[in-house]
Write a structure and sequence with these properties.
Elements: E1 2-4, H1 6-15, E2 23-29, E3 35-41, E4 44-49, E5 58-63, E6 69-76, H2 89-103, E7 115-116, E8 123-129, E9 145-153, E10 156-164
Parallel strand pairs: 1-3
Antiparallel strand pairs: 2-3, 4-5, 5-6, 6-10, 7-8, 8-9, 9-10
Length: 174
Amino acid sequence: MCRQIAGIFALALLLLPSTAAAADKYVFETGGAGALLLPVSDGWVPKIIPPSSGNPPTIWLKPGAGNSFSVLITPFTAGPTTPPDIGSPESMRRVVESFAADAVPHAVEDQLAVKPIGGENVGYVFSATDKSVVKRPVPPGEFLYITQGVVMVGKLFCNFTILTNERPSPEGEM
C-alpha cells in the first residue's frame, strides 16, 4: 500500500526556492505500514539516515548542488509504547507545540504560532528564524529558517523539518 505525502511536499515546495523541473517519485518502504510515495523535484537528492536510539530511519532530501535547503522526514508507526491517541489532532498539536516551545529560545520570534496544515492530511506546523545566524553570513551546513511539524499519512505519524536560507514565500507561510 502506497501513501502519497502531498501535504508535506506541497508545503516544502511553497517554502523552498522554486524549481521549474517536474517532480519524480521516490518510494520509501515503511515495513508493515506500506510505503511513502514522495514527489521529488529534479536535482533533489534523497538519502536515508539510519535509525538511532530506537527511532525509525529518516528520509533526508537536499539539493544535488549547493546548500539552499534540507528536508527531513521521519515516519513513525504505532507500537506497544505509542500513546493511544497518536495521530489525533489534539496529540499532534501538543507535539508541535512542544517542538515550538523548544525552539523559542533559539528563535528571533518571541512566540511561534502553531497552525494547522491545510489539505487532506491532518497536521500542524510552525516556522521560526534562527537568531544565532540572523546578523551574520550563514555558514555552510547552517540554516536561517526552520519549519517543523507533524502530519498523519494513512497510519504513519510523520515528523518533518524543512530548513532553508531563503525566506518562505507569503503563500507558504503558516
